[in-house]
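Table S2 (continued). Query chain:
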Amino acid sequence: MTSDPVTGAEPGESRAMVGPVVCAALGVEARAVRRGLARTPVVVVGYRARRADRLPGSCAALVVVGFGGALDGRLRPGDILVADQIHGTGPDTDPVACSAPRLLAEELGRDGLSVQVGSLVTTDHVVRGKERALRAAGGARVADMESAVIAARAGNRPVAALRVVVDGPGHPLFHPGVIGRGLAARRVLARTGPAIERWSLLLVRGEDERGTEARTP
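Corresponding output:
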């Protein structure tokens, strides 16, 4: 019998994690972000977070990473959105405030990455066409299909989410150019690991006060 490659636990055994856990929907996203992580495990939760049951029962924080679609023209392909709030689309879902988003954005910026902070919405489908404008009018800046699902499982644990923009207004997903944009986004995602780990250390040390206002709905 082999141990779990993420937790190190034997089959049937649950092992608590002390540090944060990074969550990615797809293997390509997980492989990219792992390049910059020295000590943080990555869990592949699947498309639409269908394998969210892979997440550990205990860890310091959950960080959702991957690609996303911009809803307004202020975000260009290759930019990163750090979520300050994560919204679901169900009638009974409340937004989840993210932990120290501006601190995470600052750390990413230190590594020369183009970063903005704003609201993220999770849907069960690819957002395109007129729906982009409708979601943007509601305050969301990027759409994905996993973050709200992961945030709902976090309980009282800190949650963060960052998305590298692949498509958006003027840059449709279903277009030959998406291949080049996807490769560029993967390179950006591969550079995010060090900032995520610095952010998590600062969070543990209680140095996230600078993000207090951003966490207030």
